[in-house]
Amino acid sequence: MQRRKLGRLFDVSRYTLGGGGIGQVWGATSREEAIKTVQDAHEAGITLFDMAPLYGNGEAEKVMGLAFPTGYPHTLRLTTKCMLGGANGTDVERILTASLQESLKLLKRDYIDVFILHGYVVPDNWHTTLPPKFLSKVAVTLSTFNDFVIPAFEKLKKSGRIKAWGVTAASTQVTNLKIINSESPPDVVQCMANVLDSAGSMEISGERAEPRAVIKQAKDQSVGVMGIRAVAAGALTDTIDRPVAADSSEQYDYDRAARFRLIAADMGASPAQLAHRYALSMPGVETVVLGVKNREELVDCLLAEAAPALEASVVQRIDTAVRN
């Protein structure tokens, strides 16, 4: 498998195995199958594994901790995350540290390569129609991020318990760019990388999504880019593999990807294969996070990575079909 340098950090495989699938977020699987999927992913050349406590209430981290009973291969790297929500600034360091310690215990590891803020950073005094109760669970303000989150991350780096830190760039565009362009930028951002430029159910701002501008700015600042949601939470597959509401963002994205599926069929590929080839072709995306939950889905993705890069004319055809 090809590799790229992740920002200023280290080389990583073009694919990252995400924890959502093996944590049973994207449909049912068994722990045994999830463990075998992790093992096969590593054997196939995947070197980065992206975990979080929220992926199955710790299930993804448990699976990783069980997948290598004799110890992790020296080439394998791990991320995990912490959802701070509307924590008071003075509580940030304690919450991050406690979450990290629990993750390390489940992962059976004494350090994490990249510790990522799960959720959103939003502007101070942000006016939004989102329920305050919801926002308090998933977002921190920009001032809290600058004054408390960054210092806590840097302290953890100095302790050796993390090697780097990152954020999810799925907030308002101005906030995403401010974080990347700050005096203390993250080492890594996770950013939407799909045909539709869609954040799906992760979208909170109501703006027209512009993830490619975020990716370009991150690249310019030597911030590593992990592309997420390559299949738009299932919208860019043959069929969404779990029940979704008729008025959900996933169903909306699935419907507007109808022409994309026709192009995939015309090319003799599954929609998921073509979606991953497209994400891998996006400039500035150094690794694409997979949401697979079993070995069958993993094989489909591996075929996409092994295929030739999409020609510019094919990318243009896809873009035109989706935009229209």
UniProtKB/TrEMBL annotation:
Residue ranges that the Swiss-Prot or TrEMBL entry lists as coiled coil: none
Occurrences of domain NADP-dependent oxidoreductase (ranges): 17-321
InterPro entries named among the record's database cross-references: AKR, AKR2_Oxidoreductase, NAD(P)_OxRdtase_dom_sf, NADP_OxRdtase_dom
Pfam short name (any one): Aldo_ket_red
PANTHER family in UniProt: D-THREO-ALDOSE 1-DEHYDROGENASE, NADP-DEPENDENT OXIDOREDUCTASE DOMAIN-CONTAINING PROTEIN
Full protein name: Aldo/keto reductase
Species this protein is from: Candidatus Marimicrobium litorale
